[in-house]
């Protein structure tokens, strides 16, 4: 069977611990608001292969975590790892789209979405997911945001084409407040979360793809698209970043 573009994207991210910018310190900082002594139920939206999920679960020994991703391959890997780590009694991966969640209202104390809310759109995610939170529950997410008022033409053009909802931290906080959340905390991911943990291994993978498929137009287009993103961050990474937002539903 001939491979589709999505198959090459999947190959580009093969064997990577993190499928987006992130680092352990930032994940742990984001969940500092969760009382380790309390029994809580957490929904992790867009868990990927679970790197941040298992870090969170190991840190919060009284937490039950339901993690969703729309990739059955990622969820298979996720549940296999959960058994390896002896966490399958309280950590479960489900293949489910964030657009078709079937959970009952007020099911979770916390919603966690690391590097995934952009798929729904920041405001849409905050609005649509709120009903799954218990009263005064918290939504913790990382969202691409401008971290300077002086953006280059290249960065603005790229993000307006790929994610026009990018905005300043101040405006993201206002959006959250307008949707019925109190902003408890926010912080910017460090540069290493983009480079060491994400773009360095991703660059290795796409270099291997270029060598493997020297005349495959679809594979080379996937490599080109990813290379464009890496190069943009190399040249303009001081202008934007993922920012963790800790938001309490009112």
From TrEMBL:
Transmembrane segments: none annotated. CDD domains: AdoMet_MTases. Residues 38-161 form the Methyltransferase domain. GO terms for biological process: methylation. It comes from the Bacteria. One of its GO terms (molecular function) is methyltransferase activity. Pathway: Lipid metabolism; Phospholipid metabolism. InterPro entries: Methyltranfer_dom (IPR025714), SAM-dependent_MTases_sf (IPR029063). Keywords: Methyltransferase, Transferase, Ubiquinone. It holds the Pfam family Methyltransf_31. This is Ubiquinone/menaquinone biosynthesis C-methylase UbiE.
């Amino acid at each position: 069977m001939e491979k589709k573009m999505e198959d090459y994207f999947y190959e580009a991210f093969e064997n990577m611990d993190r499928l987006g910018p992130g680092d352990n310190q930032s994940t742990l900082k984001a969940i500092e608001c969760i009382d380790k002594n309390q029994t809580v139920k957490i929904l992790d939206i867009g868990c990927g292969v679970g790197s941040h999920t298992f870090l969170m679960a190991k840190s919060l020994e009284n937490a039950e975590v339901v993690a969703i991703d729309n990739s059955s391959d990622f969820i298979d890997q996720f549940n296999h790892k959960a058994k390896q780590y002896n966490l399958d009694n309280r950590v479960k991966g489900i293949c489910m789209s964030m657009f078709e969640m079937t959970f009952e209202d007020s099911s979770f104390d916390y919603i966690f979405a690391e590097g995934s809310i952009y798929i729904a759109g920041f405001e849409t995610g905050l609005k649509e997911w709120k009903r799954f939170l218990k009263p005064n529950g918290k939504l913790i997410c990382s969202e691409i945001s401008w971290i300077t008022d002086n953006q280059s033409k290249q960065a603005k053009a790229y993000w307006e084409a790929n994610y026009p909802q990018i905005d300043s931290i101040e405006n993201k906080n206002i959006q959250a407040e307008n949707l019925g959340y109190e902003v408890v905390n926010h912080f910017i991911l460090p540069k290493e979360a983009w480079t060491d943990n994400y773009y360095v291994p991703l660059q290795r993978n796409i270099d291997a793809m270029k060598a493997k498929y020297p005349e495959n137009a679809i594979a080379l287009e996937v490599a080109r698209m990813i290379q464009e993103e890496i190069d943009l961050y190399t040249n303009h990474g001081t202008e934007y970043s993922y920012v963790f937002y800790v938001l309490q539903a009112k």
